[in-house]
Amino acid sequence: MLKCTHAFVRSTTGAASQRGSALIIALVFLLIMTLIGVSAMQGTTQQEGMAGNARQRNLAFQAAEAAVRSGEQTLEVSGPTAVTLPTSFVPPATDPGAFWMDYDWSQSQPYNGALDATLSEPPRYVIEPPIAMTIVDDTSAALGPIRTVPVTLYRVTARGVGGTANAVVILQTVYRPTI
């Protein structure tokens, strides 16, 4: 039979050097996970803000679109008497966008249809004085000589504001009434 004559001796020097290293590693991992979580939250917050801005712009666009259609309907019903500006009105050709942003919209026609309750102000529209033009009637080419037809066009400009005053959309259309 074999007898073991060696006694097992524990060394306390190795355990003393490892004490607390697991805690430091765990804290480093916790710090890394916290940084990842914070950056993810910042990205989510930024995306939420962008989605909110897109919604506000969409509301403003829909309001301006409704006002443009209201102006066109006014022209269709009232004809030339629907012009809401003096005949001397001419927006500058250099920067019409700046002109319409600075325009006093309180003197324009309000949209009086159903509105979204979240709009900060109702949409408005302006019908500019008529533009007389002559167009070529190409449908007559098969029947004989090409002829020109005089037409009267109106530019309708509308301004819609979203749920905040910072979301503003200005639309323009050139419209030819059928009457």
How would you explain this protein's 3D organization?
This protein has 179 residues and is of the alpha+beta class. It has one domain. 40% of the residues lie in helices and 20% in strands. The protein has three helices and five strands; from the N terminus they run αααβββββ. It has helices at 12-18, 21-78, 96-102; strands at residues 109-110, 124-127, 131-137, 147-161, 168-175. Strands 1, 2, 3, 4 and 5 form a five-stranded antiparallel beta sheet that branches. β4 (147-161) and β5 form a beta hairpin. The longest helix has 58 residues, at 21-78. The model has no long low-confidence stretch (mean pLDDT 82).
Features:
alpha+beta, 179 residues, 5 strands, elongated, 3 helices, 40% helix
Strand content: 15-25%
Tell me the domain tally: 1
Would you identify the regions where 5 or more consecutive residues have pLDDT less than 50?
Answer: none
Q: Main β-sheet: number of strands, strand sense, barrel status?
A: 5 strands, antiparallel
N- to C-terminal distance: 123 Å
Radius of gyration: 36 Å
Structural class determined from secondary elements: alpha+beta
User: How many β-strands, per DSSP?
Assistant: 5
Globally, the shape reads elongated
Q: SSE order in H/E notation?
A: HHHEEEEE
What's the number of helices?
3
How would you state the average pLDDT, rounded? Answer: 82
Residues in helices, as a percent range: 40-55%
